[in-house]
Structures are given as structure tokens and as C-alpha cells.
Automatic annotation (TrEMBL):
It comes from Pygocentrus nattereri. GO terms for cellular component: Golgi membrane. It catalyses: N(4)-{beta-D-GlcNAc-(1->2)-[beta-D-GlcNAc-(1->4)]-alpha-D-Man-(1->3)-[beta-D-GlcNAc-(1->2)-alpha-D-Man-(1->6)]-beta-D-Man-(1->4)-beta-D-GlcNAc-(1->4)-beta-D-GlcNAc}-L-asparaginyl-[protein] + UDP-N-acetyl-alpha-D-glucosamine = N(4)-{beta-D-GlcNAc-(1->2)-[beta-D-GlcNAc-(1->4)]-alpha-D-Man-(1->3)-[beta-D-GlcNAc-(1->2)-[beta-D-GlcNAc-(1->6)]-alpha-D-Man-(1->6)]-beta-D-Man-(1->4)-beta-D-GlcNAc-(1->4)-beta-D-GlcNAc}-L-asparaginyl-[protein] + UDP + H(+). It comes from the Eukaryota. It is found in: Golgi apparatus membrane. It is an enzyme of class 2 (transferase). The lineage of its organism: Eukaryota, Metazoa, Chordata, Craniata, Vertebrata. This is alpha-1,6-mannosyl-glycoprotein 6-beta-N-acetylglucosaminyltransferase.
């Protein structure tokens, strides 16, 4: 049937008026039912109408009935859901009308406003129904319970917050439907039951039936994780409907054979040892509609792909390692997987968390806070946050960050800093997750070297805006090399790209790989920071040329980093390439110095390099690293105080010893080793210079700062063994400690374990630094970490 859309809206708009009539007549409980549950609005040009195709057999009607309160709430929820669907489809139609230049015969904007008004009226009506229903229930409850005093608010010193929480519930319990879901009905009895049995602010009620023993949750038997090489089930799980998901699936397919080979190698390396299968939820928050998803529309327009590259590789690594994986790309999916009660997230989850681990990002963390409420604090030890640029401890500790000027829009979650997982190993306080680059076999490497064009350069910059102001050094480069670009454009060549540049437009990944295999040079403009492309270019036999930053960029002096929860100073466009790869594959020069730039170009033309890919960015390297994290990192178990009270009996010879042929201290070989990962055999204890962080101090000795070791060196024993003169030893909340002042002979130990920081430094203090060794090509793992 064809029904004018205005007729539909007029009928729906009458609902609130009909509802008011029933409220007045019945003094309480009512329902409004709608007989069109599945309408699909399709735009046509026939008489300025929408064609409403009926998807059910029932006729198109609007009816008003009187039902019970429980049914009324259910139907009102369906009405709200239906209106939300209509709004989304109307929004799509308005976009279609705009894109296809449809005549404005249907006055879409006006219709959208009418639907919005209807939705608000239905929402208001739902609130009134709920209030009336609950008041009625409360009245009947009073009659039933009498005045026995069973529900007097207790004044118990062990539960000091109980009276205040009851007062809050009296005025605000209708603010979230989740309270009604748990049986709250407006009476003090229901408040006390909820606050003592669902939350923990009030004591258990004596008259409640507590005779039956609590049902103990049986831990399911542990299952073995087996490596997977067929990725078809993973591809089905990733889903469809977004260009970002299509990009991720193409990447997974392209690298499938390399993942399979890597899985076989790692299985042999681990001697096919037993590995526990974990239940893992991956919630990709930045791709949800609720977070705005600005990435998906730009996938085919030169937008950033680094985050999608990393998430595709994380999903694949977890799946190939054999874990039980669930993937969420929407808040609705997140709620379903977690078993969140309906509402706005004010109530906690009452059951156990159905996952061992949850991988998400900052957007997802915020969504989980909104929908898990108090449960997030209870379960946050299971969370791993994918965090490109890193989060330092001073920014992570909410109270400390607020008091000392480290508060930003992103930090302050009070996690263990190792729960943040970065794209590159630039922040030892965090765990290094990484991604993978395509690995070449020997035949491919030989073919690349034979077919290199020594005077061919490819520019790192897909967006035309990145080329602004770069003419001077591009002119120098053009004197020596043929310059190629991959700048996105729709119809006209971007004016920012010089005429002498051969612009290929935005290339698919495989065509870009072929271009890089021919090119001699891959040149960066200074932005984007720390992306995957330079590693891919180096892996395809290019030399990467990048600008040096004077002074280094940081959150203190550069807009891009402002607000990010880190004080890290970025010395070049790609610090990992500069520090961990270096020459001859990477050259970092001052682009403002024309002579230095031109000298570098000439040297690149003379230099021959082989394709190179660090082991930690191969599929095997990533599998090895993620496997180690999953099997060994545990942030839920309570750590015993260290050192214990009987330390002198357990370690009569002391905790530390001077290592042979070294100025560093290690864990005493004859000491009992407390449980720890990484193992304490990897510990190397040293002291920084004034104004130097432990990151730098450890790097000076060819080591890596290890935050897991701080709790073992945060004691007087370490100060004595390092021969530090302390007139005073303070225990303080300070992200610089443990540290000491040479001038004042003052020593400070850390009082708050969340503030143990590799990154912290002060001009007044020398840091006590726990370093460790690392595996060749795998900086995230110590030699004994597997």
C-alpha cells in the first residue's frame, strides 16, 4: 500500500494525546501499541510520497489498549526502537536526496524534525508511565510490608555510605532503567535490597532469605590453544558494512600465508608446549558509530590507515594463536557480549566477566565506562588498551595527574601502565603491541635488488596538504631523482604537488608495494608521525630519508601532541626507524639545511642496501610477543608486599650482587627468586644522571627499562648496595621516585605503585633504574622471557 508519509506521522503524533487520555481515565497503568513494527521507507518520485512497503501481514493500524505496567514498558521500548530506526532511515534518505540531487518534494528536513519531536514525546511518555507504575507498586508494597521497621535505613559504621546512597536512590532511581531491571520499585525495601545485594553500600538485610548457600561459580576446565592457519572464520567474524572493515579483511587475506608459516615456526620454537586458550573480546571503539568513526569514510580518500593496519594484525595474531575470539564494532554488540543490564550503565554487572581479556582503545574504554558503570573498576585488570602514542604513569594516575598538571583528555584511568599497548616500542612503561610488515623470501629480495631504479624517489604523503611548503627541498631532490607521489585526488591534480612530480594517485596496497620495490628512496615530509609505511618501504629495499626536529616535538611545544598523555620528545618523523634501524637503511637530516639535505641525497644514490625488516615486525615476531603477554602478564592477582617482613632470613646475603665485568647490579644468584614476569634473572640495576630518565639511562647501557622490576628495587637494600649516601629516606607519592639528590643527600622511595615510571625525570634527582636485557630483534622480551 502507498501511504503519504504525512498520514503516518499524523497517526504517530496522536499517541501522546491518546496516552494522556488513558492516564486520566485509569489513574495509572496503560499501554500504547503500534501495529506497524516493520516499515521500510523507500523514496519515490510519485506524487511526492514515500512508498511504505508492509513487511508483515497485519494491516496498517494504530490502536490504544489498556494493559499491565510491565507490558506497557516493553511496548514503549519497541516504539522507541522503531522511531530510532525510522530516524536512521530518514537520515540516509536525506543524504541520498542530497547526493543524487533529488528535488526537495518530500521536505525531508521537516519530516525529520517531526519524527524527532515524536521521539521526544514518546520518551516523555515512557518516563510518566514508569513513574506511575512504580508509585502504584510502592503503595501496594507498603500495604504488604506494614510498619514492622524491616526497611529502616541502617546506621552501620561498617557501611558509612548507606544512608547517603538510599537518599540518592529515593530521588534518582528512575534516572536509569537498570534499577528497575534489578527490582527497584521506589520503596525503601527495594533500595536496601539493591544496595546490599547488587551493590555493596549497605549491610545484608536480616529478614532476607540467606539460608541457602551462595552458588559457587565453577571455573570451566582449561582448554588448550592450538595454532590456526585457516582464517576464513576470522574473516566472517570481522563483518561488513564499512570500508575500514573491508580494508582490514583485504590485509588479513593478503598476509594469510605468512601468518600460517609464522605459526608453524613458533609452534616448533615453543616445542609444541601446552598453551591455555583464553576467552578474548576485541572491541574496536574508534570504528563504532557512537565514537563518530571518522576513519572509515577516508579509507579510499588518502586517510590514515595505521590504526586499521594494527587492529587487523591484532585480530589475526589472537586468532592464529588459537584463542576464543569475539569481535565488537558497535556499542550494542559490546553490551550483548558483556551481558550489560538495560539502561545507561549506572548498575554493575552481577555475574562474572565472560572474558579473560578485553582488547580495546580509548574510545572503547570510555564506552565501557558508560555502559558497565561500577563494574569497570572491578574488571579493569582484564583490559588491554591499544594506544598508538603511549600513556605515561604520571598521566595515568587520576588524582596525581589532576594535582600536578598532567591531566589530559585521554589519560587518568588508573590502570597498570603495562596495560597500555603501543604501536612502536617507544614507551617502556607500556607494553609494545606493534603490527607486521610483509616479509620477503630470498628470491624476492634478489629480484628487488636487480630491478632497483637508483634515481627514483617516492614521497611519503597521500594528502595534498602534506606537500605545502616543501618546494625548496623537492627542487633539490628533483635535480638528482625522478620524484613520484601517491596523492589522492578526485578530478583535478592537486596544485600543491609540483608539476615535475609523477603522481600515481592513491594506489591499492599491492600496487604501492610494486612501486616501492622499484624505488631507491622513500622520503618523509615530517608528517604523519610513526606510521607503518616507512617500515614497509625499508622492507622493500628503499632507503628512508626523514627530517630531524629541532627542538624535538612534544606535548609541550607541538599542537599534534598537545593533550596526549605523554611527555615523550619525538626527535624525528619516525624515531623507531632512526634509533632501532638507523643507517644505511635510514637517514635523518635537517631539511632546513640545504647543503646537508643535498649531501644526504647524493650519499643515498651511492649506497646499496638489501631489504630489511626487524624480526619484531614479522608475523612470527608479533605472534611470539603476543603469546608471551597472554600467557604471562597478570594484572588481576594481588602482588605480595616486597620486601616481606622476614627478608633478612630469606635473603641473608642481600638481594643484589655486582655483575661480573660490569658496574651494574643483578639479582643475587643465591637468593630465592620471587614470582615475577619478566623473570628477575634479567634485572640490571643502575643509576641515571641528573635530569635523565630511566629510559635513557638503560639505553646508555644497551638495555631496556623494565617497570615490572620497580617494586623489587624500591627499598633501602638497593640504596645501600648502590652506595648511595642518604641522610633522609622519604616515602612519597612522586613519579620520579625511587631517586636521590646528591646535593642534599636525600633519598625518596615510591609510595604509589601506579606511579613507578621509566619516563619520569628531574634536574634535581638521579633515578634508581631497573633495566633488563632483551632478545635480538625483539625488544619487548628478555632473553629468558619465553
Amino acid at each position: 500500500s502507498k501511504i503519504p508519509i504525512n498520514t503516518v506521522l499524523t497517526l504517530v503524533e496522536s499517541l501522546p494525546r491518546r496516552a494522556e487520555a488513558v492516564i486520566a481515565a485509569k489513574g495509572g497503568i496503560f499501554v500504547v501499541g503500534i501495529g506497524f513494527f516493520s516499515l521500510c521507507f523507500l523514496m519515490t518520485s510519485l506524487g511526492g510520497q514515500f512508498s511504505a512497503k508492509r513487511l508483515t501481514d497485519s494491516p496498517f493500524t494504530v490502536r490504544t489498549e489498556v494493559l499491565g505496567g510491565v507490558e506497557s514498558r516493553g511496548v514503549l521500548r519497541k516504539i522507541s526502537d522503531m522511531l530510532e530506526v525510522i530516524m536512521k532511515r530518514m537520515d540516509s534518505l536525506s543524504k541520498l536526496e542530497h547526493d543524487l540531487n533529488f528535488p526537495a518534494c518530500c521536505e525531508t528536513a521537516g519530516l525529520v524534525e517531526r519524527i524527532q519531536a515524536i521521539a521526544q514525546n514518546v520518551s516523555n511518555m515512557a518516563v510518566r508511565v514508569e513513574q506511575i507504575f512504580q508509585n502504584s507498586m510502592a503503595a501496594s508494597r507498603v500495604v504488604r510490608e506494614g510498619t514492622s521497621g524491616q526497611c529502616d535505613v541502617p546506621r552501620d559504621p561498617h557501611f558509612p555510605d548507606c544512608p547517603g546512597k538510599v537518599d540518592w536512590m529515593r530521588s534518582r532511581w528512575t534516572s536509569d532503567p537498570c534499577y528497575a531491571f534489578y527490582g527497584v520499585d521506589g520503596s525503601d525495601c527495594s533500595f536496601l535490597i539493591y544496595l546490599s545485594e547488587v551493590e555493596w553500600f549497605c549491610p545484608p538485610l536480616a529478614w532476607r532469605n540467606h539460608s541457602s548457600p551462595p552458588v559457587l561459580q565453577k571455573n570451566p576446565p582449561k582448554r588448550q590453544a592450538a595454532f590456526r592457519t585457516d582464517l576464513s572464520a576470522l574473516l566472517d567474524q570481522v563483518g561488513t558494512g564499512k570500508e575500514s572493515l573491508s580494508f582490514m579483511k583485504r590485509r588479513i587475506r593478503r598476509l594469510a600465508s605468512q601468518w600460517a608459516t609464522a605459526a608453524h615456526r613458533l609452534d616448533i620454537k615453543l616445542r609444541r608446549s601446552w598453551r591455555e586458550q583464553k576467552k578474548i573480546l576485541v572491541h574496536v571503539g574508534f570504528l563504532t558509530e557512537e565514537s563518530g568513526d571518522v576513519f572509515s569514510p577516508k579509507v579510499l580518500k588518502g586517510g590514515p590507515l595505521g590504526e586499521m593496519v594494527q587492529w587487523a594484525d591484532i585480530l589475526t595474531a589472537l586468532y592464529v594463536l588459537g584463542h576464543n575470539l569475539k569481535i565488537s564494532i558497535s556499542v550494542k554488540e559490546l553490551q550483548g557480549f558483556l551481558g550489560v543490564p538495560p539502561g545507561r550503565g549506572s548498575c554493575p554487572l552481577t555475574g562474572p566477566l565472560p572474558f579473560d581479556l578485553i582488547y580495546t582503545d580509548y574510545h572503547g574504554l570510555q564506552q565501557m565506562k558508560q555502559h558497565m558503570g561500577l563494574s569497570l573498576k572491578k574488571h579493569k585488570c582484564h583490559i588491554r588498551v591499544i594506544d598508538t602514542f603511549g600513556t605515561e604513569p604520571a598521566y595515568n594516575h587520576e588524582e596525581y595527574a589532576t594535582l600536578h598538571g598532567y591531566r589530559t583528555n585521554w589519560g587518568y584511568w588508573n590502570l597498570n601502565s603495562r596495560q597500555y599497548m603501543t604501536m612502536f616500542p617507544h614507551t617502556p612503561d607500556n607494553s609494545f603491541m606493534g603490527f607486521v610488515s610483509e616479509e620477503l623470501n630470498e628470491t624476492e629480495k634478489r629480484n628487488i635488488q636487480e630491478n632497483k631504479v637508483k634515481n627514483m624517489a617516492v614521497v611519503y604523503g597521500k594528502e595534498a596538504s602534506m606537500w605545502k611548503g616543501k618546494e625548496k627541498f623537492l627542487q633539490i631532490l628533483h635535480r638528482y631523482m625522478e620524484v613520484h607521489g601517491t596523492v589522492y585526488y578526485e578530478t583535478q591534480r592537486p596544485p600543491e604537488v609540483p608539476a615535475f612530480v609523477k603522481n600515481h594517485g592513491l594506489l591499492p596496497q599491492q600496487e604501492l608495494q610494486q612501486l616501492l620495490r622499484k624505488a631507491k628512496l622513500f622520503i618523509g615530509f615530517g608528517f604523519p608521525y610513526e606510521g607503518p609505511a616507512p617500515l614497509e618501504a625499508i622492507a622493500n629495499g628503499c632507503i628512508y630519508l626523514q627530517p630531524k626536529f629541532h627542538p624535538p616535538h612534544s606535548s609541550l611545544n607541538h599542537e599534534f601532541f598537545r593533550g596526549k598523555p605523554t611527555s615523550r620528545e619525538v626527535s624525528s618523523q619516525h624515531p623507531y626507524a632512526e634509533q632501532y634501524i638507523g643507517q644505511p637503511h635510514v637517514m635523518t637530516v635537517d631539511y632546513n639545511n640545504s647543503e646537508e639535505f643535498e649531501t644526504a641525497v647524493r650519499e643515498i644514490m651511492r649506497t646499496k642496501v638489501e631489504p630489511y625488516l626487524p624480526y619484531e615486525y614479522t608475523c612470527e615476531g608479533m605472534l611470539e610477543r603476543v603469546h608471551a603477554y597472554i600467557q604471562h602478564q597478570d594484572f588481576c592477582s594481588i602482588e605480595a608486599p616486597f620486601p616481606p617482613a622476614n627478608a633478612s632470613r630469606v635473603w641473608p646475603g642481600g638481594l643484589f650482587t655486582l655483575l661480573p665485568n660490569s658496574t651494574l647490579l643483578g639479582w643475587a644468584a643465591n637468593s630465592t627468586v620471587p614470582p615475577c614476569w619478566p623473570p628477575l634473572s634479567a634485572l640490571r640495576l643502575t643509576v641515571s644522571k641528573e635530569g635523565q630518565s630511566c629510559v635513557e639511562a638503560c639505553q646508555t647501557s644497551g638495555l631496556v627499562c623494565e617497570p615490572a622490576f620497580f617494586r623489587f628495587i624500591n627499598n633501602k637494600e638497593a640504596l645501600i648496595k648502590l652506595e648511595i649516601q642518604c641522610e633522609v629516606v622519604e616515602l612519597e607519592v612522586n613519579h620520579i621516585f625511587p631517586a636521590f639528590s646528591v646535593a642534599r643527600h636525600e633519598c625518596g622511595l615510591q609510595k604509589e605503585s601506579l606511579l613507578f615510571s621509566c619516563a619520569g625525570f628531574s634536574a634535581k634527582y638521579r633515578r634508581i633504574c631497573p633495566c633488563r636485557d632483551f632478545r635480538k630483534g625483539q625488544v619487548a622480551l628478555c632473553r629468558d622471557c619465553l
